[in-house]
Every structure is written in structure tokens, then in C-alpha cells.
Amino acid sequence: MSFTTSNELIARAGKIVVLPRKYWTFEFSTRSGSRHSNLLLFVAGLTDNICSVGYLPPLAEELDTIGWSTAQIMASSAGSGFGLVSLASDVQQISEVVSYFRDQGFNKIVLMGHSTGCQDCLAYQTPVLPSSKAADRAKLDGYILQAPVSDAEAISQELSQDLIDESIEVAKQLYTSESPLAIVPLKYSKNMFGSIPITALRWLALFQPRGMDDFFSTYLTEQDLQQTFANLNTSSLFLMSGADQFVPTTVDKHALLARWKQIAPVEHWSDMSTVISNATHSLNADKSDPPTADLIAIVKLYLQSL
User: Which among 43, 22, 20, 40 is positioned nearest to 30, based on CA atoms?
Assistant: First the structure.
């Protein structure tokens, strides 16, 4: 779900900014060399690092033309760190980064999540996390959720159901008999994540049905979705990828999107939400490629509408 980006490309694209509490972001360069008054703050998915989501650099370049700066937050979950943390830590760090940028003078700030970053977007604005209240988090002016997928359903494309069930039972045993931070055996995680360590807590959050990260599965009931989609508190744009390789082919993406819309507050659901035809999970870096061009065009229109 990621690729290595050369240091030369990163140097051309922007600069690393270290924040007061040792959080850091990657800010994309603008043509003028100065920040704009509005900011798109990007949070990527599992295993992703700086610019590993291919469409982000061309998106930042296009947003520069409409007066929006772009920055990618590098939370402690970035790269190989996701297995040792949680959505709660992501949300806390995002809130502190947003507060920092508010203090820097930005007017509108929109959070764009890719893949597991979409869970961050929902967790940030809804009461699903017991550790803090949504009202206590730094205010955002909008959310963009690109490629929301169910990890609990995606794993079925990597492991047999017997092995999935076994891994969940092992994680439960580790959680209760040793520690929530005990590491799940690589036997279960290596096919998807190689040698990245994953705690029992995170494994259950990602892959146990109705785990802490389970927001987008097709089996979730209306009662389940009331905890997330019914609690959207700010304008939210959902962009599903029509050819997402991490969504089972049996899933009707249009029907799923329509179901979420039905539950969400009408005033906080962006009518620009759609399934981008032929788009893969992360699209690509060629802004002339039709799915990437469509994504960029929709994001620009959405930001201009706020």
C-alpha cells in the first residue's frame, strides 16, 4: 500500500516542518514560496510515508492554483509505526497539529484521509473514541475521505477465514493473558505487512468484526453506523475508488455509498461524494490519468465550495 519516494523528489516537492511536541509534517512548496491562507492537511494509510500516495504531489500542485496550501501529517502511526498505536493516538496528534496550524494563521483547514486515514477522519468528528470528546478537538472546516475500506473485509483476500478466525482468537488471548501491547505472531501478519510488529490491541481493532477501526464494513447494521455516520459534525466528502483492490469484488460500492448518505446528516454530507470510476486504491501520480484527474477536480471544487 506504499512505495519508496526518492529524496530528490521530496526535496523538490516541499520541506519537513518539526512541530513543538516533536510531531512533524511535510509542507508542499507553493509557486510563490509563501503559504496560502487555507490548508489541506493530509493523513495517509497503513504503511504510508512522505508522498507515498502517488496523487498527493500533483494534487498539492493544483491546489496551489486555487489558494490552498497542502501538508502531510506524519503521525506516530506512519510507515511501520501503525501496529504499535491506535486511532486514538492519531486523533490526539492530528488535533495538536491542527491547533499548531491555526496558531500559524491559517483560516480554513480541511483534513483529507486516505485509506486508514478515513478512519481518522470519522473518529475525529464522532464520539466513537472513549478517550476524548469530539468537541474538545481542534476545529476543522471539512473532511475528505478517499478510499475508505474495511480492513476486516480486506484481510479475507490475504488469509483464509480459518486463519483469520485463529488470528483473532490468538490476539484475544494475548490481550487478556499478557498485555494489549503483546505482539501478534508474524505467522498472521507477514502476508500483508511483512515483519512490521502489530499489537494484539491493534490487530483486534483492525480485523475483529466491529473492532475499534471497523467503520466501513458491509455487514455493519444501521445501529452500528449511527455511531459514526449519523454523528458527522462538519461537511464531509466521500470518494470511493471504483477499482479499489482492497475492496472485495462482491461489494456494490454505489449502494454502500448511498447507504452511508442515508444515515448521515444531510447538512454534513457533501453531494460531491462519489465512486471514482476505474480508480485504484491509491490512484497514481499522473494527473492526466482520468481517475487521478477526476479526483483532483472534485477536491478542488469541494474546497472552493467551503
Answer: 40
In the chain, what are the domains? 7-150+216-305 (3.40.50.1820), 152-214 (no CATH)
Q: How far apart are the first and last CA of the chain?
A: 31
Sheet with 68-74, strands from edge to edge, namely 14-18, 24-28, 68-74, 38-43, 109-114, 142-146, 236-241, 274-276
Take residue 16 and report the three cell numbers written for it: 519537513
Which candidate, 187, 182, 227, places its Cα nearest to that of 202? 182
pLDDT in tens, 128-166: 887 677 778 999 999 999 999 999 999 988 889 999 999
**H or E element that contains 207:** helix 200-207
Contact 299, 63 (CB under 8 A): yes
d(CA 239, CA 7): 30
The answer to whether the beta carbons of residues 45 and 115 sit under 8 Å apart is yes
Residue 266 identity: V
Cell of 33: 514560496
Q: Which DSSP letter does residue 184 get?
A: P
Strand partners, 42: 72, 112
Q: What angle do CA 171, 176, 180 make, to 5 degrees?
A: 65
The pTM (predicted TM-score) of the whole model is: 0.93
The answer to whether residues 68 and 106 touch, using CB atoms and an 8 Å cutoff, is: no
Q: What is the dihedral of CA 99, 102, 103, 107, to 10 degrees?
A: -170
- pLDDT tens digits for range 248-302: 999 999 999 999 999 999 999 999 999 999 999 999 899 999 999 999 999 999 9
